Amino acid sequence: MATAELPPPKTEEDELKGSEAPLLDHLIELRKRLIYSLAAVVVFFLGCFFFAKPIYDLLLLPYRWAAGSSQDVKLIFTAPQELFFTYMNVALFGALFLAFPIIAGQVYAFVAPGLYKRERRAFIPYLVATPLFFLLGSLLVYFAVAPMALHFFLGMQQTAAAPGDVQIEMQTRVSEYLGFIMTLIIAFGICFQLPVVLTLLARIELVNSKQLGKGRKYAIVGILAVAALLSPPDPISQIGLSIPMYALYEFSIFAVKWVEKQRAAKEAAAAVKA
Residue ranges per domain, the chain? Predict the structure, then answer.
């Protein structure tokens, strides 16, 4: 009696069969993903613009904490349209932040058909880790760095103690304050992607833990340069960015070691099967 032959096991190349498409189909798919992403940004922009004043009031909380109960928080605008455009910037910033999961999902949906199954599994954790680390950087700015920096600036005010003395007080414009907070949030959010980037480079074997360990002194110089470039030009913000970045660099070394251990375990298991 003849026995049925078992089908050959699927290879990685078999996974991609059927996903090939001409250039025009890729462009149509790309246009669809871009439209979905843009629609999400527009919808969130309209919603955030409706709540722009409460959102801006939330962004003012670090200023209130820095000023304390002894000082009144007062901002000014020097052009008729300044407050309106400030609220538009608030809405755009909020829309991009809220729409990021949708945009990231559209990016993944576009590139996933061209990835192997193991590559798709490896790609998903980075989609989750990227906004999480950005959020951690934003929270550090909101609760620690921004209040300390603003307290430092407010302490530079000068009161007129006697007749003839010059009084110097900080009168911040609404657009300048938003720019200050957004610069800090974006700078910290980008720099907090360091573990994500280094572990991704370790997965494709461009860096390893030994290289990162030996390059600490160069990393410190690079961290100081990045902090000086991205953060506002004040010592509090630059120090506040440099210290967490170095801590993230050390954390990245442990994360890269974990990636290397996983790779070694998979290679050992594959060798045993062979």
Answer: 24-156, 193-274
